[in-house]
Design a protein that fits this description.
Shape: globular
CATH class: Alpha Beta
Low-confidence stretches: none
Strand content: 15-25%
Order of helices and strands: HEHEHEHHEEEHEHEH
Number of helices: 8
Strand order of the largest sheet: 2-1-3-4-8-7
Mean pLDDT: 91
Helix content: 25-40%
Largest sheet: 6 strands, parallel
Number of strands: 8
Oligomer: single chain
Amino acid sequence: MLERTTTLATLLEGTDDRLVVTGLGSAANDLAYITDHHPRVFPMDGVMGAAASVGLGLALARPDRETLVVTGDGELLMNIGTLATIAVQNPQNLRIVVVDNGRWGLTGNQVTATDTVTDLAEVARGFGIRRTLTVESKEDFPAARNLLLTPGDTALILIKAEPGPAADVVIEREGVRLRNTFRDHVLAGLPATA
């Protein structure tokens, strides 16, 4: 199993132009640390299960921009059905990275189903997301980077990470300010509407 923050930093290197939606907790902390709180990153802190849905909406609203969802296994399990909608819509500009440490990190590190019987990459394939990959070692990094960076159908990359804390960073938790900062970044360069 891999250490979450350094693995994410390695895989996401060179994706600085992408709009990013994170799941709550560890995913938000990791991306705040990796991107130094960049306004292109919208942390879904406090809304469990919404990251993939918001990422889908963003990808559909801005087909001219690459969209990346970074979330955890627990957060995705809370709204697993969204993968079916994503598969049906299949935006060509959407990539989903799931950090699977087999734990509900924010509620006490209880074991999730992914630690025992559930394989989220197989679930995604079952819903119809054709491009999936599980990353279990550094040898898988080139294939993961290729999937992340190659245009085409929606892709899901599952990182098998060791249980443990995310990056130790303080993130902004003021929802209105986060929304406004992200919105301004997303809309930058678009023509004004009447």
